[in-house]
Amino acid sequence: MSQTTAEPTSTRSAGRIIVRNTLFGMGAQIALRVVSFVFQVLVVRALGDEEFGRYAIVLAWAGLFSVIGDLGINQYLAREIARDRSKANELFWDTVVLRFGLAVIAAVITTVGAAWNGYDQRLVLAVAIYTSSYFLQAILAPLSSILTGNERVDIVSVMGVITQILFMVFAAIFLLLEFDFVWLVIASVINLPIMTVLHLWAIRRNKLGPPQFRVNTGLWWSVVRAGLPFGLIQLSLSFAFRVDTIFLSGHVPDAHVGWYNVAYNLTLTLMTLSRTFNDAILPTLARQHANNPDSVRPWYYQSVRMILAVGLPVAVGGMLTAEKIVALLYQPEIAPAAIALAILVWDIPFVMYHSFCGNITQSINREDAAARVYFSLGVVNIVLNLILIPRFGIIGSAFATVLTDLIGAAQFYFFLRKEFGAGLNFKRLARLGLATIVMGLMIYLLFNLNLLIIVLTSAAAYLTLIWVSGAFSPEERQLLIGFIARRLPSRKQSVTQ
Q1: How far lies 75's CA from each of 143, 144, 229, in Å?
Q2: What is the pLDDT along the chain (497 residues), one digit of tens a residue?
Q3: Domain range holding 185?
Q4: What does the alpha-carbon distance between residue 455 and residue 467 come to, in Å, rounded to a whole number?
Q5: Is the residue at 256 inside a domain?
Q6: Count of domains in the chain?
Q7: Is the bond preceding 210 in cis, omega lying within 30 degrees of 0?
Q8: Domain annotation covers residue 479
C-alpha cells in the first residue's frame, strides 16, 4: 500500500489552510444542516413527540457510552499526524486494533446498562443495534484522523455530508413504510460500511496511505495513556450533551423528552459555523504551535471577538423569536418546545467560546487543562440536572445546560488569559454588546411582523452598528474586506478603494 507523504511545512500558510478548511466545512455544514434540519422536522412530524422522544433517548444513551470505544486515542492520532506525518505509519493500525477491543467493552456496558436502567425491550433492542456502530467506527474513525491530521478537513466535511445524506435516504424509506424509531437507528448504522470504503478511496487518491499493516503491542499502553486527556474531554462533553436527555427520561413523559430535543437540536443547528471553524483550526494550529508557539496568540484574540459577534445576536434573536420559530416549523403539539428553546439559545455563545478554547488548548499541547475544565463541567451538569429536572422538568434541564456552559466559558477565559495575557479589548466587546441590545429592541418592536422580515431587518441593523461603531479594529476590518475581495475577484478594485 502507498505510504503517507508530507507536504513541506514551510510552503503552507496557516491562515490559507484554516480559511480553506473553514470554507469547505462551512459550505458542507450549511448544506448538511439545511437538509438535516428539514429532515428532522419531517421526522418529528412523522413519529410524533413521544416516538421522537424515545429515539432521542436511544441516541443519548448510546452516544454517552460510545466514548468508551475510543478513550480519546482518535483525537490523539489526528494531532500526532498533524505534527509529524510519519506518525500515521507508526500509530494507525495500533489505534484500529485498540478501538476494536474497546468496542467490545463499550457494547456490553451500553446494552446491559440500558436493560439495568429499566428501559423497555424496544429501547434496549435499539440500543443494542446502535452499538454495532462502535465496531464500524474502529476503522472508520482512524481513517478520518489521517485526513484530519493531514489538514484535509475539507474532505472530512464532504464525507460528513455524504454520511448524513445516506442516513436520510435510508431513514426516509423506513418512515415511508411507517416503521418505528428502531428503524431510524438501523438507518444510522447501515451507511457506515459505505463511508469506510469512501474514506479509503479518498486517502489513496490523495496519496496519504493508508499505512501498511503493522502492530506494535508495546505502544498500546502509551497510546491509551496519551489519549486519556482527550477521552476525558469527550466523556465530559458527552455528559454535557447527553445526560440531560437521560435524566429527563426518568422524570418526565417521552413526549416532554421530544420537546426538549426539538429545542436542543434547533440550538445545535445554529452552531454550524463555529463547529466548522473549530474543526479547521485544530490540526493547523497544532502544526503552527510546534514551529512557532507565539503564532497562536493572535488567532485567539481575533477569533473570540468574531465568536461573540455571531453568538450574542443569535442568542438574543433566538430568545425573542423562539415562539415564532417553533410555530413555523412544527405541529401545534410541539409548541411547548419554544420555552426550552428561548432558554437553550443562550447556550450558543458559551458553547462556541469554550469549544474554540478547548481546541486552542489542544493545539498548544495543554489538553490536560482542557480535560480538567470539561471534567468539572460534567460534574456540574450532573449536579444541576439532578437538582433542577425533578422540580422543573425540561425548563430545569435547559437552565442546567446554559449554566454549565457559562461556567465552562469562564474557566477557559481565566486559563487562557493566564497563558496569553490581556488582549481581547473590552471596549470593542462592549460595542458588540450595545449593538446586540439595540438589535433586540428592534426585534421586540417588530415582533408582530413576519419572521423573515424581522430577521433580515434586525440583522442588517446589527451588522451596520458593529461596522460603524468600531467593534472591530481597522486591521480586522481590512482583513474582512480583503477576504470578501478574494471571494469576488471581479469587484476587487471597487471594494478596496
Answers
A1: 12, 10, 10
A2: 444 343 434 434 555 555 545 555 455 556 666 677 777 788 888 888 888 888 889 988 988 888 888 888 887 888 778 777 777 788 888 888 999 999 999 999 999 999 998 888 999 999 999 999 999 998 898 898 888 878 777 788 788 888 888 988 999 899 888 888 899 999 989 999 999 999 999 988 888 877 888 888 888 888 888 887 777 777 766 666 678 888 898 888 888 988 998 898 888 777 765 555 555 555 555 555 556 666 667 777 877 887 888 889 999 999 999 999 998 888 888 889 999 999 999 998 998 888 888 878 876 777 778 778 888 888 888 899 999 999 999 999 999 999 999 999 999 888 888 887 777 778 888 888 899 999 999 999 999 999 999 999 999 999 898 888 877 777 666 656 654 554 444 444 434 44
A3: 12-424
A4: 18
A5: yes
A6: 1
A7: yes
A8: no
Cell numbers at 118, concatenated? 429499566
Q: What is the DSSP string of 221-236?
A: HHHHHHHHHHHHHHHH
H helices present in 66-120, as ranges: 73-83, 87-116
* Alpha carbon distance 165, 36 (integer Å): 8
C-alpha cell at 199: 474514506
Measuring CA to CA, how many Å separate 356 from each of 234, 237, 272, 304, 351? 14, 13, 13, 8, 8
**Cell numbers linked to 124:** 434496549
Does residue 102 fall inside a structural domain?
Answer: yes
Domain membership flag for residue 86: yes
